[in-house]
Amino acid sequence: MVILKVAGYVDPETVAEIKRRFADAYPELKGMGLLTLLTRRNPEEVHIGHRFRFGLDKRRERVFALDYELVFVTQQYLKPFPSIPAGWHTISLFRVLQDSAIFRDTLPLAHDWYDNTQNLYISDLPPLTTPQLFEQIS
Fold first, then answer.
1. pTM of the prediction?
2. 115 to each of 25, 60, 69, how far by Cα in Å?
3. pLDDT above 50 for 136
4. What is the pLDDT of residue 69?
5. What pLDDT shows up at residue 138?
6. Under 8 Å between Cβ of 7 and 124
7. What is the distance between the alpha carbons of residues 56 and 59, in angstroms, rounded to a whole number?
8. pLDDT of residue 137
9. What is the dihedral of CA 35, 37, 43, 48, to 10 degrees?
């Protein structure tokens, strides 16, 4: 079970800098359908390749079907990581395999590294169990 808090989109300038610096070493960054999100402290490590199948709104009332695969992780100093380390805020790039326009439309632009007011969530859990388990990380 993996649940990630998501603060929102990363600003376009940062996304461009990540792609500029790492495109040669990480060919997956050249692909279409990438979503770059600021993720909040997660209680466990999440490895590249992990897939998230569900999104949950900030009130934890609506569940959205999606399919995002974690393909790249970095942080404010733009050092690549092999995973999202436990307890870290990260800039995480996801390959979008299936999207939810409604979920994506609820994602704000993450303005501040420590702003926790707009958190959404993505999870690999099925929708029937997700709302109860999200309570554990709030």
1. 0.85
2. 31, 18, 25
3. no
4. 95
5. 46
6. no
7. 8
8. 45
9. 40
Nearest to 39 by CA among 1, 16, 70: 70
Question: Which sequence spans correspond to the domains of the chain?
Answer: 3-137
pLDDT category of residue 1 using cuts at 50, 70 and 90: confident
What is the second-level CATH architecture of the domain 3-137? Beta Barrel (2.40)
What gap in Å lies between CA 86 and CA 88, rounded to an integer? 6
CA–CA–CA angle 125, 63, 71 (5° rounding): 55
* Contact between 106 and 57 (Cβ < 8 Å): yes
Model confidence pLDDT, tens digit, residues 77-124: 888 999 999 999 999 999 999 999 888 888 888 877 776 667 888 988
> CA distances (Å), 23 to each of 29, 81, 110, in order?
6, 15, 23
Residue with tokens 């380390």: 85
H helix or E strand, kind and range, residue 15: helix 12-22
Side chain identity, residue 71: V
